[in-house]
Specification:
Chain lengths: ~300, ~550
């Protein structure tokens, strides 16, 4: 059995580690800072602009006068959307679908990926093949619809969380991550008398927080933004997620489905409903992201590189 | 939960195939005179024994029909609307709604119909969307059942809509969509003109397209740096840009362009169809547009700019004329110019062109399909009677549109005393009301309101729009072209030809209009169309016209 030890840190001889940065590195830092600031501004500007629009008055939005700050502060659209009880029912649905969906997806993906990461598994190629096959081919909307209807899943939570429970992309990322864990760890655990589930739950998973956090983020965002399966399988307003609600609102406000004259309220809504929608749907994810973000990059990178 | 067993699927497929076979054999026998329609003795449960035009329908026992219910964002579906309560009270029918967000209604309809899960009544279907479901046998050939619909047949006869109905017939002589029926062609698009500028320059509202040239020239003389006319509705080009302008101008010249674009036009003198883009009338129309462009009366960007750009020009007083409809006039043009002191704008009656004081267009609107599952329902007859009452009887239309007399409205549309109740508002009517008739009560819902008499239609307009409608109603309505249904193969072939033809017509329409191509090259343009299978397209349409005439005429 091979033991893995971190290479001992050798104290360096010669110049001390702390020194004044050279001219070159200072220039580099300065240029770096400028470029990165520009990138930050470029990424932030659209969002700040959206935020400003969502609070602005119709007239200023139409004439393109809104930039970083709201003009003619106005809450009509927010008030209309937030005072609608359907909005809150649907927002609750979104939270429910996201939480349940993410949990199911996470459990299934972890189990599948862990199994696939074991090189000694017989039929491993076939199992990978089955997963990858679905990446390229699927039944299409109508057969899926007939299947889900036939299984009696329509108008239930399961129609949303079951059909797309395993994302093959996420599965492969996770499989690669598990493969990169040293096999010796698991062998040691086995020698100490742990069974397969013990190894997975007590050794592998605690070491996989980074990838799990990444998967939570991926799945949660996907469920949060998804509207199509809900739209397809739900026949009742009270079951829709908030994305379907807002999508319909946008279509109604901008599509001219409305005959005759609109009231001032409707004109105001038409002008900034998109901005309000973006703010309302993005907000929760935005609040969660900073807490998971530190795992995020590590998680993806760990999965990406194979030895 | 409705589960399809394998046997059900198979028997459904079998029935579909049998129906197809029957339809195929029934060549020439597509007589839908309906007196000898299908045997319905097993489908009469809940139906009225005697039900005639003008009667109030009431099912003899409580019935429930499933319906696909579009939920409009402006008035989202509510199960407790007065509409549904009152409907049950009057007809003994409860509607079970499958609620579909309006944003993606068509897609869900397709999936549900194709997946064999569609509700019985499928409203809000625009022609020719119904055609995609015919081959699979998923929807009912409603023309076989019109004998159960006395109000429908009565209205078709009274308003002489037989010709319009014929345009919906398929190759088998049947139609599969129950359309909204209008008493008269409804025109909405026209030009919005700044009336304060007209007054300032001592001009009157133009009555003809020639008058419009005079007005634009006078505006140009007074404001030489500006284009007096800058138009919208150019994105997406369909086929050419400035789609609303080309549409009303084309109709005034007796041809189809812009929004109204149609590859073939019926030539009553020759008794056959000709290619629209090669017609002499189309050329004359383009010459008119070219005159406007070359004298710098019409902004050349009219063919490419976004609506927002066109609106900004109008809003800032850089242009004085723009295409509009009742809705954009009130929601966009008026508010847009509110910042210009003294500015006023009206929608003028559509200017008159070479065809004279006439209008063209269909009197049919979108409508409803019935799922072919209804054939096996013991309530089929009652359902058709119900549909007939709600969608086609005067009382049903009035109810769906304006609700309950004494609650949501008073008076009657017949003697012009109609008025919304003081606390009820609709669009521009009764703006001080506190309750929106669509949001609070569920009336005037696009799912249930189609067509109707001119009087009923006019009841929804504010005074200004009513004037426009009166002017348009006074014009003669030209007959619609005869039916020429293509069969599936022809349809597919024609679609391929039409894609290439449409592109060429679109590009050259803009080029001729902008003067980038001289009219001396008209003949070579027509040969370009010929190279793109123009003649084959026209021949196919004429062949189907002859075939239909022989089989069903």
């Amino acid at each position: 059995m091979v033991t893995v030890d971190a290479p001992p840190i050798q104290p360096r001889a010669g110049r001390p580690r702390t020194r004044r940065p050279s001219q070159g590195s200072r220039t580099f830092n300065a240029v770096n800072a400028v470029i990165l600031t520009a990138v930050v501004v470029l990424t932030l500007y659209p969002f700040v602009n959206i935020l400003a629009r969502s609070f602005s008055e119709e007239h200023y939005i139409r004439s393109g006068q809104v930039n970083l700050l709201p003009k003619g502060f106005n809450l009509t659209t927010y008030r209309t959307v937030l005072s609608d009880s359907t909005f809150w029912t649907n927002y609750g649905n979104t939270v429910l679908y996201t939480v349940v969906g993410t949990l199911i997806s996470l459990v299934l993906t972890t189990c599948y990926a862990y199994v696939l990461s074991k090189k000694h598994l017989r039929g491993r190629t076939l199992l990978v093949g089955i997963a990858v096959f679905t990446l390229f081919f699927n039944g299409g909307i109508i057969p899926n619809y007939v299947l889900v209807s036939g299984l009696g899943l329509r108008n239930s939570l399961w129609a949303i969380v079951l059909p797309n429970a395993v994302s093959v992309f996420n599965l492969l990322v996770m499989k690669a991550f598990f493969e990169s864990l040293p096999a010796e760890l698991e062998e040691a655990a086995a020698v100490d008398g742990m069974g397969t589930y013990g190894i997975l739950l007590r050794v592998v998973l605690p070491l996989s927080k980074a990838i799990i956090a990444t998967m939570v983020l991926f799945y949660a965002v996907a469920y949060w933004n998804s509207w199509f399966s809900a739209f397809l399988y739900m026949d009742n307003t009270s079951l829709f997620p908030v994305t379907v609600y807002l999508r319909n609102l946008i279509a109604g406000a901008t599509g001219g489905t409305n005959e005759g004259m609109a009231s001032d309220t409707q004109l105001q809504i038409a002008a900034n409903i998109k901005a309000v929608t973006v703010v309302l749907t993005v907000l929760p994810i935005l609040l969660v992201y900073p807490f998971i973000q530190r795992y995020f990059v590590t998680g993806i990178l760990l999965g990406a590189v194979k030895e | 939960m409705y589960n399809l067993s394998r046997r059900q699927v198979l028997s459904g497929a079998g029935a579909g195939a049998a129906a197809l076979a029957l339809a195929a054999c029934g060549d020439g026998g597509g007589d839908d005179n309906s007196t000898k329609g299908p045997d319905l003795s097993a489908n009469r449960e809940g139906a009225m024994d005697k039900y005639a035009a003008g009667d109030q329908f009431k099912a003899t026992q409580p019935l429930s029909f499933s319906i696909m219910m579009l939920s409009n964002a402006a008035y989202p579906y509510k199960a407790d609307w007065l509409f549904f309560q009152e409907l049950t009270k009057r007809t003994n029918v409860t509607l079970q709604a499958t609620v579909v967000p309006g944003s993606d209604y068509n897609q869900k309809r397709s999936v549900m119909v194709s997946g064999g899960n569609a509700p019985m009544i499928i409203p809000k279907t625009y022609r020719p969307d119904e055609e995609q479901y015919i081959a699979s046998g998923a929807i009912l050939p409603v023309s076989d059942y019109t004998s159960l619909m006395p109000n429908f047949t009565d209205q078709v006869k009274k308003w002489k809509l037989e010709g319009d109905i014929d345009t919906m017939r398929q190759d088998d002589g049947k139609f599969y969509l129950l359309p909204g029926l209008h008493e008269d062609v409804w025109k909405d698009y026209s030009l919005a003109i700044r009336t304060d500028i007209l007054q300032k320059l001592n001009l009157t509202i133009p009555k003809t397209w020639d008058d419009l040239l005079t007005v634009l020239r006078a505006m140009k003389a007074a404001y030489p740096d500006q284009y007096p006319f800058s138009d919208r509705w150019s994105v997406p080009p369909q086929p050419a840009g400035a789609n609303a302008l080309l549409s009303i101008l084309g109709e005034a010249y007796g041809t189809w362009a812009g929004f109204s674009w149609n590859h073939t036009t019926w030539d009553p003198k020759a008794g056959k169809f000709v290619y629209t883009g090669a017609m002499d009338e189309y050329k004359k129309m383009l010459q008119y547009v070219n005159t406007m462009v070359s004298e710098k009366l019409l902004d050349p960007e009219s063919f490419t700019q976004t609506d927002d750009n066109a609106r900004q020009k109008f809003a800032s007083g850089k242009s004085f004329v723009i295409s509009c409809n009742a809705q954009t006039l009130a929601n966009e043009c008026r508010p847009d110019i509110a910042k210009i002191p003294g500015a006023t704008v009206v929608k003028i009656p559509v200017p008159i062109g070479p065809i004279g004081s006439a209008k063209t267009g269909t009197r049919l609107e979108s409508g409803l399909m019935i799922s072919s599952k209804a054939k096996d329902s013991k309530n089929l007859v009652a359902m058709m009677q119900f549909v007939d009452w709600l969608f086609y009887s005067d009382a049903g239309k009035m109810f769906a549109k304006w609700g309950v007399q004494g609650t949501t409205y008073t008076g009657s549309i017949d003697d012009g005393s109609f008025k919304l109740a003081s606390d009820v508002k609709f669009a521009g009517l009764n703006p001080t009301g506190t309750k929106n008739i669509q949001v609070e009560y569920g009336f005037f819902n696009g799912v249930f309101v189609y067509g109707g008499s001119t009087k009923l239609l006019n009841s929804q307009f504010p005074a200004e729009e009513k004037q426009f409608q009166d002017a348009m109603t006074a014009r003669k309505t030209l007959p619609v072209p005869p039916p020429h249904p293509l069969d599936a193969d022809e349809r597919e072939q024609a679609t391929l030809w039409e894609a290439g033809l449409k592109d060429t017509v679109a590009q050259q329409t803009v080029k001729f209009s902008l003067g980038q191509r001289p009219f001396g090259e008209w003949d070579s343009y027509v040969s370009e169309l010929k190279a793109k299978n123009m003649q084959q397209e026209v021949d196919t349409v004429n062949k189907s016209y002859e075939r239909y005439k022989k089989n069903h005429g």
